[in-house]
Amino acid sequence: MTYSDLFGPETVLLNLDEADSSDVLLTLAQTIVSLDPALEGRAEELHAALLEREARGSTGSQGVGIPHIKMAATNKVTAVVGVHSEGVDFNALDGELVHVFFSVVRPEEGADEHLDLLRWIAGIAQHEDFVSFSCQATKSQQIIDLLTELSAA
C-alpha cells in the first residue's frame, strides 16, 4: 500500500467554505468520524484535540495545513484532505493563508509509520504547483490523481 491509497473520493472535501480555522477543523473532524466507526460520536472530542494540537504550534505553511493527532479510540490511520480556494488564516508559520488541509488521526501505536506519512504529505505540499492545482480541482478524483502523481515524482 502507498500513502496515496489512504485517499478515496470519500476522503476528499472540495469547496470548503468555512469562515475560520476552527470551523475547518470541525468539518475535518466530522469527516474523519464518518469514516472510522470506532470514532462514532467523538467529533467534538476530535475537534478539541485538533484545536489543541494547532494551539501548540501551527502545522500550516506554504498554503498547506497538516493538523494531526493520535487517539486511543481508533485502531487505524484515517486521513482526509480538504480544499478551501479562498484560504483561511491558520496562523501559518509563513503568515500565508492555508488552502489545502490534510488531517490525520492515528492510533496510539505506530509512531514511525505516522511520521513517514507526515513526511510524505509535507513532500507533496512542497511541490510548487500543488496548492494551485488543488484549488483548481472540480472533482475528488483530480485530487487523488494529483496525490498519486506527486508520490511518484
Give the overall form. Answer: globular
Helix content: 40-55%
Flag low-confidence runs: none
What are the secondary-structure elements, in order, as H or E?
EHHEEEEHHH
On the 0 to 100 scale, the average pLDDT is 94
Largest sheet entry: 5 strands, mixed
The helix count comes to 5
Computed structural class: alpha/beta
> What oligomerization state is this entry in?
single chain
Report the portion of residues in β strands.
15-25%
Distance between the termini: 17 Å
* Radius of gyration (Å): 14 Å
The total strand number stands at 5
Structural write-up:
The chain is of the alpha/beta class and 153 residues long. Helices cover 42% and strands 18% of the residues. It has helices at residues 21-35, 43-56, 111-125, 130-136, 140-152, and strands spanning 12-13, 64-65, 68-70, 78-88, 98-106. Strands 1, 2, 3, 4 and 5 form a 5-stranded mixed beta sheet that branches. Helix 1 (21-35) packs across helix 2. The chain is globular and about 35 Å long. 37% of the residues are buried.
